[in-house]
């Protein structure tokens, strides 16, 4: 007769269970293994991300729409370029002030009226162009659009608030945001060009204004994920924070890479395929950004900039020696270093800036990028007009990338301010090394 199985318990011997539960293969973890899917298990993140995506797509539409609309009405690309440049310059001046108000009074309270005012400016511009108003009216009107809030910065601020103390998850969120930027600036010009050419010239601006206001309203309505307004302090501008000024100088040089590459590529290709060829750089950056977000360990900003400086020589070599497909491949490869560089740089801005000034800090970084883009566009345009050989213009983005790396190496960006953690984990240089560690060596 078989003896029953006994097991020892605190109360003495007892019958062991006849059947033991075994783990089954189909039992699933409550959290997805994909880091991007894990981001959206946080309550409220899907709703604010959807609204922000709608609001950010027009950022890639307004410039192209304005150029097509103004050039078609006034038969002057010079006027169209001057008006759009004026709008960009005005936005660069006002963006930090709008971001400071967002930090002080909250995203919903400031972003909605600021967006409504900017949309009104776009609508007035449409009316001026449609009525063939004098050129000075176009310049004055486009300045009204400068109140547009930095929607990407507000979204990153929400992630930083929700993922405080989880640096790996925040790194993935920053990579997702950068990939979203690349996607919007890749799709936005295409949507704008199609609307302006197939519907009517003003359709791109009108559609962009509608999407912008709708997206911001949806985004602002998600109050559960909005960062709380920090108590007002006597803290000065984030520009005074240790390490911020040299980091912004790096962003300025990095922006010159993007601005010059766009102009010299359009001038070099000079045809209907110029847009798709240029979009390959954004496609490479988007793909690299998503892959970078999967990484458990990030690279340092210096390493990212070194890779960008190296890869930016590929379009130059392709344009000097190869056919158009070679240039397309070179742009695709060159783009693969830009998203990791910006993700790492934005991560450093988040760590250097206190929560009460986070929107302002990230907007300063975006403003530096826009300033670099404007300078790079002007320099690239000059190089395209005065090029001693066809590929000469591609020296500009390659040189700007090398300058960004040199500034990072010379100033030690990302290796200062070790004491400023602001509750988001130890401040690192982006490569997992504690910032300021070189000071102890």
Automatic annotation (TrEMBL):
<dbReference type="InterPro" id="IPR036259">
    <property type="entry name" value="MFS_trans_sf"/>
</dbReference>
<feature type="region of interest" description="Disordered">
    <location>
        <begin position="1"/>
        <end position="34"/>
    </location>
</feature>
<feature type="transmembrane region" description="Helical">
    <location>
        <begin position="389"/>
        <end position="414"/>
    </location>
</feature>
<keyword id="KW-0472">Membrane</keyword>
<keyword id="KW-1133">Transmembrane helix</keyword>
<feature type="transmembrane region" description="Helical">
    <location>
        <begin position="77"/>
        <end position="98"/>
    </location>
</feature>
<feature type="transmembrane region" description="Helical">
    <location>
        <begin position="299"/>
        <end position="318"/>
    </location>
</feature>
<feature type="transmembrane region" description="Helical">
    <location>
        <begin position="53"/>
        <end position="71"/>
    </location>
</feature>
<feature type="transmembrane region" description="Helical">
    <location>
        <begin position="361"/>
        <end position="383"/>
    </location>
</feature>
<protein>
    <submittedName>
        <fullName>MFS transporter</fullName>
    </submittedName>
</protein>
<feature type="compositionally biased region" description="Basic and acidic residues">
    <location>
        <begin position="431"/>
        <end position="441"/>
    </location>
</feature>
<keyword id="KW-0812">Transmembrane</keyword>
<feature type="transmembrane region" description="Helical">
    <location>
        <begin position="273"/>
        <end position="292"/>
    </location>
</feature>
<feature type="compositionally biased region" description="Basic and acidic residues">
    <location>
        <begin position="18"/>
        <end position="29"/>
    </location>
</feature>
<feature type="transmembrane region" description="Helical">
    <location>
        <begin position="241"/>
        <end position="261"/>
    </location>
</feature>
<feature type="transmembrane region" description="Helical">
    <location>
        <begin position="324"/>
        <end position="349"/>
    </location>
</feature>
<feature type="region of interest" description="Disordered">
    <location>
        <begin position="416"/>
        <end position="441"/>
    </location>
</feature>
<feature type="transmembrane region" description="Helical">
    <location>
        <begin position="110"/>
        <end position="133"/>
    </location>
</feature>
């Amino acid at each position: 007769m078989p003896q029953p199985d006994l097991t020892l318990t605190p109360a003495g011997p007892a019958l062991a269970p006849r059947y033991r539960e075994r783990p089954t293969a189909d039992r699933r973890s409550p959290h997805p293994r994909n880091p991007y899917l894990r981001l959206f298990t946080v309550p409220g993140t899907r709703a604010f991300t959807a609204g922000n995506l709608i609001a950010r797509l027009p950022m890639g539409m307004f410039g192209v729409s304005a150029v097509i609309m103004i050039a078609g009405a006034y038969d002057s690309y010079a006027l169209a370029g001057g008006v759009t440049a004026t709008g960009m310059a005005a936005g660069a001046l006002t963006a930090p002030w709008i971001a400071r108000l967002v930090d002080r009074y909250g995203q919903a309270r400031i972003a909605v009226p600021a967006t409504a005012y900017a949309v009104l400016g776009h609508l007035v511009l449409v009316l001026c162009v449609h009525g063939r108003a004098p050129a000075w009216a176009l310049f004055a009107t486009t300045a009204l659009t400068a109140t547009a809030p930095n929607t990407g910065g507000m979204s990153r601020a929400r992630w930083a608030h929700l993922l405080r103390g989880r640096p790996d998850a925040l790194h993935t969120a920053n990579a997702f945001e950068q990939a979203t930027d690349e996607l919007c600036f890749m799709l936005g010009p295409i949507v704008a060009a199609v609307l302006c050419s197939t519907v009517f010239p003003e359709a791109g601006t009108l559609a962009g204004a509608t999407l912008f206001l709708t997206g911001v309203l949806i985004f602002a309505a998600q109050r559960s994920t909005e960062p709380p307004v920090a108590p007002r302090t006597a803290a000065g501008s984030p520009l005074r924070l240790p390490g911020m000024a040299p980091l912004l100088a790096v962003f300025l040089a990095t922006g010159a890479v993007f601005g010059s590459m766009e102009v010299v590529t359009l001038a070099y290709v000079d045809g209907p395929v110029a847009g798709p060829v240029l979009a390959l750089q954004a496609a490479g950056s988007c793909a690299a950004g998503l892959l970078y977000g999967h990484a458990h360990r990030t690279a340092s900003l210096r390493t990212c900039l070194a890779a960008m400086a190296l890869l930016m020589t590929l379009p130059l070599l392709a344009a000097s020696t190869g056919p158009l497909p070679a240039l397309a491949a070179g742009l695709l490869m060159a783009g693969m270093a830009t998203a990791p560089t910006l993700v790492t740089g934005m991560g450093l801005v988040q760590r250097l800036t206190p929560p009460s000034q986070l929107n302002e800090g990230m907007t300063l970084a975006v403003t530096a990028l826009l300033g670099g883009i404007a300078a790079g566009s002007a320099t690239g345009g000059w190089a395209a007009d005065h090029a001693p050989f066809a590929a000469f213009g591609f020296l500009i983005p390659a040189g700007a990338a090398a300058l960004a790396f040199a500034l990072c190496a010379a100033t030690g960006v990302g290796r200062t301010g070790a004491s400023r953690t602001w509750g988001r984990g130890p401040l690192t240089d982006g490569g997992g090394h504690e910032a300021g560690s070189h000071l102890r060596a």
